[in-house]
């Protein structure tokens, strides 16, 4: 099967290719843009994008990916608008919003959604979530986005994502979990 | 002419009706929803919504309205995502983001866009902007949204929008300006 991944990010392409390689799935990059709607959930954003792509003639199967950081004390902000928040208020702004909020209330999660449209236009969502906490200050220079302020649960040394190497981060990451869920589904589908 | 206004807000309907009444334009409310995309400008959001409505069979002419608060020190945040920011971080969050920012750097503007699709599917934008500053603390109980933290320029007493009565606010407001611009355009068009 030849599967389009809608992304401008070669790193995401490589990750999905590596995961699906053993299933006989050839993942190819499709970097056409599509509108992202304003909505409360990643699933809604991805599904509306998929609908737009189908209406404008894309050939399924294809996959969209969306992810974001959801901070509990901020009612889920910045959520589906994480990229915009990063470009405007940045890590510093997020820390300001949480100034004085004690550690137990600084819970947050990185979430990812892979929206897979199969050859029959069936819609499938594969979700991943990495729970954690917002640090008191930005730390580390790896990763990207809000990685310097996010401390994942299950990381005994309390490192932020930006202080971890890629392999360690991928073991915990929301996107890796979503990719694994999709891989499991396609593996089962191939054996039916 | 019968003109649909896409809104769920009876206040906005009444405002446009009052403005266009003398031009023989009957403004009717159309409360069907439409997707708002993630974009940098109000114009892009409105125009994408209009395209969706046309594609799904709405009969022009119609008008969409979008507005937001753009804070200069925050690279325009919350901008087109003002409603989401209000529902999550609120006025308190906005004040936190600007903590320690001195008064001359607290400039901001409320902006509105009316996107008018005429009977021939021509697209017209009518913009309004109200420059001002973000106050050091929320004040007043009138208005809605970010009104309690916004001090418009040209208000010598330094009141926030939430401390002004509706008539005083409307004289300065972004939405009122956009409505006036649309009225002027339709008035000229009627006399051609």
Structural description of this entry:
- The structure is a homodimer of 192-residue chains.
- Chain A is an alpha/beta fold and 192 residues long.
- The first copy, chain A, has one domain (2-190): Alpha-Beta Complex (Maf protein).
- The first copy, chain A, has six helices and seven strands, in the order βαβαββααβββαα.
- Chain A has helices spanning 10-20, 42-55, 82-88, 90-97, 166-172, 174-190; strands at 2-6, 26-30, 62-71, 78-79, 107-117, 123-134, 150-152.
- In chain A, strand 5 and strand 6 (123-134) form a beta hairpin.
- The longest helix of chain A has 17 residues, at 174-190.
- Chain A is globular and about 50 Å long.
- In chain A, 43% of the residues are buried.
- Chain A binds chain B through residues 35-39, 45, 48, 55, 74-81, 84-85, 87-89, 93, 96-97, 99, and chain B through 35-38, 45, 48, 55, 74-81, 84-85, 87-89, 93, 96-97, 99.
Structural class of chain A: alpha/beta
Helix content of chain A: 25-40%
Give average pLDDT of chain A, whole number.
Answer: 93
What is the CATH class of chain A? Alpha Beta
Give the CA-CA distance, first to last residue of chain A.
15 Å
Question: What characterizes the major β-sheet of chain A?
Answer: 7 strands, mixed
| Principal-axes shape call of chain A | globular
Q: What is the helix tally of chain A?
A: 6
Give the oligomeric state of the chains in this entry, treating copies of one chain as homo and distinct chains as hetero. Answer: homodimer
